[in-house]
Design a protein that fits this description.
single chain, elongated, 3 helices
Amino acid sequence: MFKIIKGFTMAEVLITLGILGVVIAMTLPALINKYQEVQFKSAYKKAYADLSNAFASGFINQEFTRTAKYEIAATKEEFNFMKNKFKILIDCENKDIYRCWKKGDTVCGGSCSSGDSNSGIDLENGLPADNGKSFCFIDGSGRSWCSYSDSENIYIVDTNGFSNPNRFGKDRWMFTFADANNSRISQGVKYKKVIPYYLQDILTQSAFCKYPPCYYESWLLR
């Protein structure tokens, strides 16, 4: 007698493969998004830690003097102090900042400043103004750093440089200085730490988050 061996028919195999294809198509985008989110979050934390370390000795020794909220000399001093703590690949000043900061998402969409020729900000193009008033560099790991303007103690980073998505709240972040209670300090010499400029998550579209959600606070401080 011959033993009959039962197996799958070609139709059954094709149906099974089709079902697997549908399941993969449904779950793969979510897995990719989750992976990217983990990468963005990790890069945010690393940028925050590196910037905090860059300014740490300056805070301890009170090396910075800002007599007013808007002070060009103070911003330049702070930025140069920070820059000296990084390995520099490209230094961009004097109207060549496009070599260091890729056009992309705007930080404020024009609602915070006019971005005119006298400003240090070119918000509509997603860049610090290319008028010799903003300062930028690319560090050894390929991150882009810039002063938000020529006169405030606000500093921005794109954690993956010229790679996408170039969006605030994803791979672009803003930092400023604060006291021990996380209250922003815009002048004086009592800086204690670096903090995210926006100290809360933004879950709906706004001037500081055009592509929500933006986890400014929870990705870093929780």
